Target: Trigger factor
Amino acid sequence: MAVNVETLDKLERKLTLELPLEAIQKEVDTRLKRLQRQVRMDGFRPGKVPLSVVAQRYGYSVQYEVINDQVGRAFADAVAQAQLRVAGQPRISEKEGAPEGVLAFEAVFEVFPEVQLGDLSALELEKLEASVDDAAIDRTLEILRKQRRTFTPRPEGEPVQDGDRVTIDFEGKIDGEPFEGGQASDFSFVIGEGQMLPEFENAVRGMKAGESKTFPLAFPEDYQGREVAGKTADFLVTVKKIEQQQLPEVDEAFIKSLGIEAGTLEALRDDIRRNLEREVKFRLLARNKAAALDALAKAAQLDLPKAAIEAEIDRLVEGARQDLRQRGLKDADKAPIPRELFQQQAERRVRLGLVVAELIKANDLRATAEQVEAHLRELASSYEQPEEVVRWYRANPERMAEIEAIVLENNVADFIFGKAKVTPKAITFAELMGQD
Model:
């Protein structure tokens, strides 16, 4: 087999493969003889069909299979001989003008790039820090109370207040015409919890049961409903029912209902603190890791293989379709999903994957069995039955591979922070949790 590798572009290569027709025909004959012993045809006993008849019926398909197999093996041998790392699937086509007795093919493909890692000691990184204070515990306790709240009718004549659940009818029009999603009957929401646009809540706040009001509402330019984004609608709202919330007392019964056997406020607050500290740790780890990996990727120099980007876009599009299917959208497989929406995300993922892989290889970073076990145990500790969670992960190699990948990423981030110029940055608990 003659091998000729040509550079077409930065990462694109062309490989010429030449296969002797004699070897191809020999393999075709071997397979046809094997097929002869198995094939059944009317008028012939099993295994007694003449080879010429078998060749007439199956010769073309067998030859096609043989050529595909031999081209595939020849390509694999050639790239191994040339020490090339192929990115994506090659585009293989027959080449004209081959010497007599030879079939020639051209394979055009991309190779993975050489990655030049930047100087990690020159990186400047902020490392976020946060802690759990009493205010965070108080806020979480209020959330727990709200999750178990009840609603009772507000006394007749009293206006709507923050925290009240209102039941309304409403109808919106733009330029005098109704629009899709702009009307509802017996619609309920809680005032002051951001379920509706602020202008809508402000209009309902202070109304009394039985009252109606018309008011204008300007939809934001980035509103999710594109047909009304940036437009102003006139809404007619009628308040049908007002209910005030009743928060449970933080007593022994309430505390025990949360799984705190001691039934004391101190035990509840200790449990909340432990859970919040665990959440803070994971969130800080995720944000700091993302910052470190982004800095690493920006500092590196490499060309991105188009085939890898296209493959990543395929995965992202399929993920979007899967999400649509889970949401119950009919014909999700036919829904138009523009590939360009995922271009930037795919490029980032490919770039980051190549750079991180190079850093791991260059510095022999790995996830140890002890680290994987520790991370698994810590992850499981947030559940009521940790051992069941541990067994669930261990029962599936793919799930354990996910744990190992997370640990490896954490090791990479630690390595980067250990080399870079790091400035601690304190943020509040609310900032970390996105509650501001």
Observations:
- The CA atoms of residues 297 and 352 lie 6 Å apart.
- The chain has a mean pLDDT of 90.
- The domain at 255-433 is CATH 1.10.3120 (Trigger factor, domain 2).
